[in-house]
Amino acid sequence: MAIGDPLGNVCIVTDTNNNTGGGSYPAASGSTSSSLLRGLRANDQEAWRRAARIYGPLVYRWAIRAGLRREDSLDVVQEVFRTVAARMAAFRRDRAGDTFRGWLWGITRNKVGDCLRRSRRQPQAMGGSSAKEIFSQLPAPSESESGSASDIPAIGALHLRALRLIQAEFEERTWRAFWRVVVEDARPADLAAELGISVNAIYLAKARVLRRLREELGEAED
Question: pLDDT at residue 208 above 90?
Answer without folding.
Answer: yes
